[in-house]
Every structure is written in structure tokens, then in C-alpha cells.
Amino acid sequence: MQLITASAEEILSMDISITALYLRLSREDELEGESNSISNQKTLLMNYASKNGFTNVKIFIDDGISGVTFKRKSFKEMYSLIEANKVSTLIVKDMSRLGRNYLEVGQLSETFLPVHNVRLITVNDGVYSDKGEDDFAPFRNIMNEWYAKDMSRKMRSTLKLKSNQGYAIGHPPFGYTYDENDHKKWAIDPESSEIVKKIYDMRTKGQSLNKIALELRYNKVLIPSMYAAKKGYRVAAIKSPRSEYLWTHGIIRKILTNQSYIGDIVNFKTYSKSFKLKQRLENPQEKWTVIKGAHPAIIDLETWDKIQKSFGNVKFRKPKNIEKNMFAGYLKCSDCGANLNYKFTHQNPDNSYFSCRNKRENNGICQKTHHIRVDVLTKIVRNHILNIVQFANLFEDEFVKIVIDENYRKVQKIHKQNQEKLEKMQGREKELDIIIEKLFEEKVLGNLSEERFLKMSKKYEEEQVSLKSEIKNLEKIVQEEEKHEMNADEFLKIVRKYSNFEELNPEILREFIDKIIVHHRENIAGETVQKVEIFYKMIGHVKIPNIKKEKLELLKKSFGIKKRIEIV
């Protein structure tokens, strides 16, 4: 059995088919004992794969994630490899490891996996998809979902009981930790509570939220999530923050409006509509449970009231009939890579624009606004799509050639990087030969015991085997041109679908656009210029000639085209 340590992205470029071992554990599963632990699942599946002669084994692990959701990092990586037909067999401990959502697990096992010729094996349930359908599988999936639903109901009941007993049902906020004598209660954390007091003191002196955040950043004070993770109060977040000192006005406001700091506990501020939905919704204030004086206060009541009055009674409310802009999620900052945020003037919602969120937060990551108005952006993107649609419709062969040539340059760059990587690997392989040879000499001379020799040589030999496999894969030159030609053909299908459109809409954006990179405005020779790069799905960023009417007539005549077209 050979273990594959390469990433999902690297596997996509390899000429291999893998055996996927999928492991999942949630907090609810932990209650069932050691049998469901990640280590137990790993041992079970590894032994099964080894005993049954499976090769190119890749392990995917989602630890601490519920089975009712399929938004799991490792699962999505494995899913992408299955889509790319890189997986021949999927092995799990039982069907509940795949998930506890009856409909989605059924669709996965009965439709998605068979379409991609993936054999499914569940070791404990005895499911072997290559031996035919398992009539009991649907009932097993329903029972797995019922289990998740029952656990959710029991959890809600437990939280309600805990709240009625006067305990908090969430983690302690910044400034508190769990009481050593009673883990259900909160105690003041000496170090972080001083930061909380400082924040309140600065606010009482009239300092703005941004100014408070800037001072904490300047003094390199850890943000609450990083402080809790480094102190061991909480598990580190999967997605790391942009900076461990990146205080924002939002974090400051949250601390200044948290009722916990006067000794109170507020439970049930949020709720979920269903055990299948992880999104938390805000509960109306009348449904909150407030427990007064549940733990020691960090801030006195007089200071608290004064701070709350400093915010005033007017809260920001989004104007009615203002919907999410269709460009939201597509625009990226050219300098820091962050998404551009949609903004509008409150007095005139029609005056809308996008700008870099890092610049707006003034967090030091980005120094420029990358500001662009929605009306200007709409015109640019519409004209660009129209131009590429018109060109591709008229000159399909030329369009495909441009796409291939554009991507060929990128392939050459990647090839150069791979060549450098290959040379390093080959150099390391030669080093390993010399090291193993010297180890053998030391053993013969009596300077190295048999046990030590076997242990060290095994380690280097395993590295060498892995290296040889990677070298073999890198030595194969991938025929990217064929792939890109195929991509161009797929893109042409969308072009024919939208050969003539008047207005830009969300559907057209979804079909065509991958991302749009917005640069900051520059002054070149007295003229203000702003660069906007448009990346299309399947073909990336390509430069298509902007055909003028005069040139169009000439091209039409040379290609024998009688079709009339409006060029913008």
C-alpha cells in the first residue's frame, strides 16, 4: 500500500487514480466513545486498504464537523477529485461518516459516485457498491439523519436546562475564562480583563472606535480569538485571521456593547431554524434569557450606561428595496487580494460603488481604495463581454487560437517552475543514495548497530520512494493545449447562448465571469487611468481584439461573412 501525501491540486496534475479513505468526527459522535475516534477510524481503514491490496491511498479527515452539513474542507477536496475522475474507490467506516443528511447522502451514493465510476465501501456496514445496490442503505441513511435530529433536540434541551440553572451556554468573552472550581461558570482573566478596562477607559475619554483599534494594533495586542487560542481557552479557528493584531472598529464595538462585562449572562441571542442549518439568526430581544450578577463584573454599571449612551439611539438601517449588487463576490483588490465591498450614499442609494475593505478598515494591509462606481463597472464589463461574444461568434477558429496561445505562455511559466522543482528533487535523490551508502559503511565498520541502521535506512528509503514517484509525475509534460482547446469549446457554447443581449444581469455574470481584478486609479501623463482585469470561466484572462467597424468590414470580406453585427 502506497500513501499519497500530495495535495488535491497536485493530484489533479498527476496521471494516477487514488483510493480515498474518508474520516469524519463531530462532537456528537465523540459521545459514543473511542470507536468513532479519528485514530480508530484511521487504523480500521488503513488495515482494510492494506489487507485488500488498495494502492495510491489518500486520507481525507474532517475532525469536529457535523455530518448534517457537506461544507467540510476535506470532503470538498475529495469531491473535486471525484469530479475530475481521479478517485477509483472511496472507503469509509460506515455511512454516517459520509453524512447524516438522508437526501444528500443518497444522492452522493446512488448518483454522483456511480456516474464517476467510484466504488463505495463501508467497512462496518458491509456495503460494496460493485456487488450491486444495497436495499437497506436508504433506511440506514434515514436512521443516521434521525440520530442527528435526536442529538440536536437533546442538545437544545440541555442548553435550556443549563440556562435555567443560571449558567452561560457560550464561551467566555474576551476578559473572562472558565472558573477553576466550577467549569460552568466564568472567572475574570487578569491579563485580558486589563485590555477590556483600557478599551472602556479610552471610550469614556471620547476616543473613536477606529482610534482605539489603531492604538491596540500599534501596541501589538492580540485580538480576542488569537488570545483565546494561544492561552488554550479555545481551539484555534480553521481560517486564520489576516493578522493576530488586527483590531477593527467591529471588534471594539462588540466589546463595548457586551453586557457580560457588568456581570450578566445573556443566553439565546441567536437561534437556528433547523438542525440541518448551521446559520445562526438573531433572536428578538424578548426571547433572550438574561441572568443578572452571574459572575464578577469587569466594568461598573455607571461606566457601562455611559458607554451605551455614547453610541446614541440611532442605529444603521439598510434602506428599503436595496438589494445585494450583482457584482458582489466577483471583485478583487489588485494589491491585497481582498474582496471589494459594496457601498452607497445613504442620501442617494443610486450613487453606489465598490472599494477595498482593507483600506476602509484602515488596518494597514492595503494603502489604496481601489474605488470604482457601479455604473462605470457595469458599462466596462458589458462592453467587454459583448466584444468577446461578437468576436468569438464571427471568428471561432481565431478565438480558439488566441485562447490557446494566451494559456500556452502560462503553461511555459508553470513548466519552468516544475523544472526547477524537479532539479531540486533529483539532487535530493542523489543525496539520499550517498546517505544510505554511508549508513551501510558505518554498519559494516561496527559504528552503527543493526537496529539503528534499519531504522535510519528505512526512513531515508521511504523518502526516496516518495521522491521517485513525484519525480516520475513531474517528468511527464502535461498537454495543456488540448485542455484549453476543450475549455474554449465549452466557452463557445455559452457564447452562442448569449449571442445577442442588451442589459447585463446576474445570470450572464454567473455564466461568463470568474473574477474581476480592480486596480487603483493612476495619473499617467495628466490623464486618470484605472485598470480593470476580467477573468472568464474556462478561458481565464485573454486579450481579444476590440474590432472597429472599418476593420470589421475588412475582416468580413476576407472571411466571406455577410452577417451584420453592432460593435460597441
Describe the secondary-structure layout.
Blueprint: H1 8-12, E1 18-25, H2 27-30, H3 38-51, E2 57-63, H4 73-83, E3 87-92, H5 95-98, H6 102-115, E4 119-122, E5 127-128, H7 137-164, E6 176-178, E7 186-188, H8 190-204, H9 209-218, H10 224-231, H11 249-256, E8 265-267, E9 270-271, E10 281-282, E11 289-291, H12 301-310, E12 331-333, E13 340-344, E14 352-356, H13 357-361, E15 372-373, H14 374-394, H15 396-444, H16 450-475, H17 480-497, H18 506-512, E16 513-518, E17 522-524, E18 527-529, E19 532-536, H19 549-559
Parallel strand pairs: 1-2, 1-3, 3-4, 12-16
Antiparallel strand pairs: 4-5, 6-7, 8-11, 9-10, 13-14, 14-15, 16-19, 17-18
- Cα-atom radius of gyration: 30 Å
Q: What's the end-to-end separation, in Å?
A: 60 Å
Query: What class, by secondary structure content?
Result: alpha/beta
- Overall spatial form: globular
The first-level CATH class of the domain at 165-310 is given as Alpha Beta
User: How many alpha or pi helices?
Assistant: 19
Mean pLDDT: 77
**CATH architecture tag of the domain at 165-310:** Alpha-Beta Complex
Largest sheet: 5 strands, mixed
Low-confidence sequence ranges: 314-322, 477-486, 558-568
The share of residues in helices is: 40-55%
